[in-house]
């Protein structure tokens, strides 16, 4: 299991070609409240696992024919798996990338945001936009994680496949 120190230290970059941070590109940014809470949550494997469990439960209940999340639900589930692997210590990310992914998951969980989640259908549009933006921003890392894990959430990456993640 990863220690709190491992989760808060500067992580190595997962792959060459990682997308720039929003401030460098002038693109959308993660809402500050989600970013700040994500920065706290990523320091603790237990908190990270708890937020993933809460988000997975919400994603399961939010799915449906009319949900705008349908187009991003697979990416969201990959982010869940990636965060769980980080919490277990099986995968490492750059700190900024970890905060972005955790922040998107956290934004999805928080019921009151730009469009409150209790508003039917429309309440998840802003969540979908944030998730899609983070997936685009962290595409290289998310694609690498998918390639290393084969999309199987039950199986963490083997030590041989994560050697590119080592410090």
Overall description:
The protein is mainly α and 167 residues long. Residues 1-23 and 154-167 have low confidence and may be disordered. It contains 8 helices and no strands. It has one domain.
> Oligomerization state of this entry?
single chain
Return Rg in Å.
Answer: 15 Å
Summarize the biggest pleated sheet: none
Helix content range of the residues, please? Answer: 55-70%
Total beta strand runs? 0
Span of the ends, CA to CA: 16 Å
Number of helices: 8
- Find the structural class using helix and strand composition: mainly alpha
Calculate the mean pLDDT score and round it: 75
- The run of helices and strands is HHHHHHHH
How many structural domains can be distinguished in the coordinates? Answer: 1
The poorly predicted ranges are 1-23, 154-167
Tell me, what's the shape? globular
In terms of DSSP E residues, the strand content is under 5%
């Amino acid at each position: 299991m990863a220690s709190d120190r491992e989760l808060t230290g500067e992580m190595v970059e997962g792959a060459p070609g990682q997308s720039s941070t929003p401030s460098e590109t002038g693109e959308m940014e993660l809402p500050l409240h989600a970013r700040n809470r994500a920065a706290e949550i990523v320091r603790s494997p237990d908190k990270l696992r708890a937020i993933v469990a809460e988000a997975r439960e919400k994603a399961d209940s939010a799915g449906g024919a009319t949900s705008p999340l349908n187009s991003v639900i697979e990416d969201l589930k990959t982010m869940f798996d990636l965060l769980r692997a980080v919490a277990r210590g099986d995968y490492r990310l750059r700190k900024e990338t970890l905060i972005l992914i955790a922040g998107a998951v956290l934004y999805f969980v928080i019921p009151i945001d730009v469009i409150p989640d209790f508003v039917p259908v429309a309440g998840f549009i802003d969540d979908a936009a944030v998730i899609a933006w983070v997936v685009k921003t962290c595409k290289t890392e998310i694609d690498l994680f998918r390639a290393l894990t084969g999309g199987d959430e039950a199986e963490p990456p083997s030590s041989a496949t994560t050697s590119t993640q080592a410090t």
